[in-house]
């Protein structure tokens, strides 16, 4: 499989447990929403889709963390996800989690590693 990469943002633009960065990816021949947050000092990226109902998580553009700043939250029904793994810790997700995307931080940028 050939891999490509794409710059999502500068490292300084992604604050620990701050607003996320929304972006689009190509998957299954269509554009899909995705997002990037920083948690535990590392960038984490996921498809912007709840594992319970396929809706976007953020209640306002880029707002993915709950009020405590500990979990990612689905704005539609309140499911909580661990930001480090995407695992559902509370809600109607039946053990399903968010779909992770591979990212790397280097040269003061955060890059999406795309798989063909």
Taking the alpha carbons of the first and last residues, their distance comes to 6 Å
Main β sheet profile: 4 strands, antiparallel
Number of beta-strand segments = 10
CATH class category name: Mainly Beta
Can you give the helix content as a percent range? Answer: under 10%
Name the average pLDDT.
Answer: 91
**Radius of gyration from the alpha-carbon trace, in angstroms:** 14 Å
Task: Please identify, by name, the CATH architecture.
Answer: 3-layer Sandwich
Describe the structure.
- The chain is mainly β and 116 residues long.
- It has a single domain, classed as Rieske Iron-sulfur Protein.
- 0% of the residues lie in helices and 44% in strands.
- The protein is built from no helices and ten strands.
- A four-stranded antiparallel sheet has the order 2-3-4-8, with no helix packed on it. Strands 1-10-9 form a three-stranded antiparallel sheet, with no helix packed on it.
- Strand 6 and strand 7 (88-90) form a beta hairpin.
- The N and C termini lie close together (6 Å).
- The model has no long low-confidence stretch (mean pLDDT 91).
């Amino acid at each position: 499989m050939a891999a490509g990469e794409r710059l999502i943002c500068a490292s300084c633009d992604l604050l620990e447990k701050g607003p996320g960065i929304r972006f689009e990816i190509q998957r299954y021949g269509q554009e899909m929403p995705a997002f990037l947050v920083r948690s535990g000092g590392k960038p984490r990226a996921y498809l912007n889709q709840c594992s319970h109902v396929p809706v976007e998580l953020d209640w306002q553009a880029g707002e993915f963390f709950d009020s405590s700043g500990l979990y990612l939250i689905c704005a539609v029904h309140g499911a909580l996800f661990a930001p480090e793994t995407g695992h559902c810790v509370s809600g109607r997700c039946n053990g399903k989690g968010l779909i992770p995307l591979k990212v790397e931080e280097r040269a003061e940028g955060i890059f999406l590693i795309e798989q063909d």
